[in-house]
Amino acid sequence: MSIESTESTAERYERLLPEITPENKPYWDGLAQNELRLQCCDECGEYRFPESEVCPRCLSASFSWRAVSGKGRLWSWIRMHQRYLSAFDEVSPYLVAYVKLDEGPPVISTLVDEPDELAFDVPVRAVFQPGFSERPILKFAVEHPDPAA
């Protein structure tokens, strides 16, 4: 009997998540509070994701973690039908989205509540949902225009 067959879906999924380290803990703490936090360079104001020791723009090592809007635009997507990892059996097919955040950095995640049609540059917003485990995961939802506006 393989190890995979004795593990629950939550256990298999949990193994796929990045380790929480002192360097990325502010990001995960933000998700737990329904807030997207990114590193921001204290010298040039460049936001970055994922975290890094120095700013890719000016090479400064000075940064702070800041809450951002969580809004962005759908830049690309792919619908995954192929099962590569058994941890995703219950969510197949799923939509992988490449989102360009309004603050600048791109983020790869999944799209929830997928509309009938997708298009390049559709506005999206961050949503915070627990995965199979209790750890919140950053996902995105299509922003629908406010009919009252």
Automatic annotation (TrEMBL):
Domain of life: Bacteria
Ranges where the ChsH2 C-terminal OB-fold domain occurs: 65-129
Residue ranges occupied by any ChsH2 rubredoxin-like zinc ribbon domain in the UniProt entry: 28-63
UniProt cross-references to SUPFAM superfamilies, sorted A to Z: Nucleic acid-binding proteins
Protein name: OB-fold domain-containing protein
Natural source organism: Actinomadura meridiana
Higher taxonomy: Bacteria, Bacillati, Actinomycetota, Actinomycetes, Streptosporangiales
